[in-house]
Every structure is written in structure tokens, then in C-alpha cells.
Amino acid sequence: MKVLVLGAGQLARMMALAGAPLNIVISAYDVNTDTIVHPLTLQKLGTGLSNAIADAEVITAEFEHIPLPILEQCQQSGKFLPGSEAIQAGGDRRLEKALLARCGVASASYLVINNEADFKQAVSELGSPLIFKSALAGYDGKGQWRLKAPGQADAVWQQMADFLAADAKQAIVAEQFIGFNRELSLVGVRAGSGEVNVYPLTENHHVNGVLSVSLARPVNIMLQQQAEQMFAAIADNLNYVGVLAIEFFEVDGKLLVNEIAPRVHNSGHWTQQGADVCQFANHLRAVTGMPLGNTELLRPTLMINILGEDHVPAAILSIAGLHLHWYGKQKRPGRKMGHINLSADSLAELKARFARLIDLLPEAAFPELEQMLGRVSD
Ligand code: ATP
Ligand code: MG
């Protein structure tokens, strides 16, 4: 089975690794260079997008910031899953917020800002603190501004005015700042038949707006049920096929949706070691029409992102239950270069292993891990 993936980053790479045992062969479309490449070596395969679309049995995506004409071309082929509507909803915060409202799913109150009058209305209606996010092309906390108090409004507006003036397609979504207790995410998979399988909620810790650590452990049933209901509402509305991730804020036992990702997700990388069938295999199973795989938590697992570093001390590989996943990328400050998955049969054992790992990793490159250590307990 041949699958074309839009995007040629680490998610396409990990799909290829998970797909090989299923006899699924992946080629990847690099949007930046407009070329079809091998997902592991990134070597050009010498064919163009139109040929690759014709050649593939299924087309899917590993990221949502894909030019509209390409989405339309893929949609027209009739092979694109989860399809253009879902990808666009993940890539444009205006569509995303409208989708959440349409599904009756709770999220932070918001207004769309196109000009100064909209900005003033947002500040007076939503109050402060506020967070502003670019409608298009936002990722890893980029394209965001914060208004802590009304006195900062002029200065914040000036930055946003320059940003809006530079790109006629852009807008800004103003959102109430949520004083959350925790950030959680749910990764699940929906088949063409409508069948849904979800992994347990994962607890996420961000540093400077970028995911640093995800922890998958047995979860509170009430929270899991809320998350699953929201997942079903969104996935059914989109008639979604494939893996979908939803990021949440937890506020006093209630979940609010932060955003959705219509694809496999960084907070689901733990499934490579902590679940029976990982998110990459489950995504491929769904889009190629195979039965969905088991999504239960097999063992508590932590995922630690490797950001901006191209090596880690080899000694960490001597820790039992530790797996290293490099993405084969050129080093750049802050870039997602790889991740570490760490599993154990109990939370107590996971905590002990995590403490050893923290001792071995350089603190400057892996800040705030100690904070997560405290969370790994019953
Ligand atoms: P990524 O692609 O890494 O998920 P992103 O650029 O799409 O990030 P968001 O997930 O919307 O951006 O925001 C990044 C982080 O900023 C969130 O994980 C959260 O910590 C914080 N944040 C975003 N929106 C709010 C909000 N309304 N209230 C409080 N914190 C927020
Ligand atoms: Mg996010």
C-alpha cells in the first residue's frame, strides 16, 4: 500500500517507521521545496506532486500549514484523509474556533481581530489578561502576544498592527487567558466506519511555549469521559478519519479545548513504548481502512523532547525502559531534534528512572524536568 504524506518532518518519518511492518510504503511531500522525498533519508524521489498523488492509494498530512491549492488538489483526488476541511480547521484559528462552537465544545471566549476597532472591542469585552494568536501559521507558541493589563494595550496593538499590515491573509484571534491547573491532551483515532479508539489523557508541560514533557499514566475517569465526549463531537462533525489530537486546559476538574491538531501529535509520541499500537500505526491503519489497534495504556510512560541538541549522553541508554528517537535533523536552536520515551511497570519505578535520567541530562538543555518529577506519583 502506497501512502503519500503532506509534510516531510519527523511525523512523516515516524509514520514510515510504523508503516513498514504493515507493508505500507510512505513518500513525503516537502512543502518548502515542492519535492517528493523519502521520509527517512529526505532524498528526492525524482517525481512531482501530481504524479505522487496519482501513484498513491491514500494521501494524508503530518502538518496543517499547507497551501490551499495543494489541499484542493489532494481533495479532488478523492484519496485525502482526514481531508481538506479538517486540515484547514487545524491550520486557521478562526475556522478552529468556529468548529469548536459548532460542536458545542467549551473553549476560551474569543474575538477575531482584523483592525484596531476589533482590538479595542476585544479588550473591553473579554477583559484582561488576554492572549492573542495569529490566525494562520501558529505553532510552538509562535505568533502570540500577551496583554497582562489594560495599560499595555497601545504597545501590544502596535506590534499586532505591524504584523497584520505585513500579510493581508492574516488575522488575530484574541482569547481570554485561562488560569489552568494543568494542560492535558487526548490523542485518538477514528475509522471510516465511525469507530473511535482513544489513548488515555496525557499531561503536558511546556517551556517557553514549546512542549517539553508528556506523561501518560492511569487517568481520572471523569476527565477522560469529558475528553472523549469532546473528541467524539469534533471527530464526528468532521467525519474524521485518522488520528486527531485535542489539547485541553484543566480548570478545577473541567476541560476547555485549547486547540486541535488534525494529525499525529507530539504529545502522543509516548504511545511508541507505552501503548500496544502507537499513534503512527493507528493513523495509518485508519486511513488505509485496516482495523484500529488497541489504545490502552500498557505501562506509565514519559516523553521528553530533545530541543536544539544533536546528542545526549550515551549513558542514558543504560536506563531500563528508555528509548531514544532521533529525527535526523540539522541542529538549530530550539528545534525539535528527537525525543526520549521512558517507561516502567509502576509510577514509583518510573519516578526512580526519571530521577536517574535527570541526573544524566545537562540541565541547560533540559530545563524544568525536576518540576515534572513531582507529578510522577500516585
Ligand atoms: P503548539 O503548536 O506547540 O501546540 P501553538 O503555537 O499552536 O502551540 P497554543 O497551543 O495555542 O499555540 O499555545 C501555546 C501555549 O500557550 C499553550 O500550550 C499554553 O501553555 C499557552 N496558552 C495558549 N492559549 C492560552 C490561553 N487562552 N490561556 C492560557 N494559556 C494559554
Ligand atoms: Mg498547542
Number of helices: 12
CATH homology superfamily of the largest domain = ATP-grasp fold, B domain
Small ligands present: adenosine-5'-triphosphate, magnesium ion
For the biggest sheet, the summary is: 9 strands, antiparallel
Can you give the mean pLDDT?
Answer: 96
| SS-based class | alpha+beta
- Ends distance: 44 Å
CATH topology of the largest domain: D-amino Acid Aminotransferase, Chain A, domain 1
Can you count the beta strands?
17
Strand fraction equals 25-35%
Q: Compute the CA-based radius of gyration.
A: 21 Å
Can you name the CATH architecture of the largest domain? 2-Layer Sandwich
Low-pLDDT parts are: none
Fraction of residues in helix: 25-40%
Number of domains: 3
CATH class of the largest domain: Alpha Beta
**From N to C, what is the helix and strand string?**
EHEEHEHHHEHEEHEEEEEHEEHHEEEHH
Shape: globular
Description of the molecule:
The protein is of the alpha+beta class. The chain is 31% helix and 26% strand. It has helices spanning 10-19, 49-55, 68-76, 84-91, 93-102, 116-126, 153-166, 221-237, 271-274, 279-287, 347-360, 369-373, and strands at residues 2-6, 25-30, 35-37, 58-61, 110-113, 130-134, 144-147, 172-176, 182-190, 196-198, 202-207, 210-216, 242-251, 254-261, 301-307, 322-326, 336-343. α1 (10-19) packs across α10. The longest helix has 17 residues, at 221-237. It is globular and about 55 Å long. The N and C termini lie far apart (44 Å). The chain binds adenosine-5'-triphosphate and magnesium ion. Adenosine-5'-triphosphate binds at residues 108, 131, 133, 138-142, 175, 177-178, 183, 206, 209, 211, 247, 258-259. Magnesium ion binds at residues 247, 258-259.
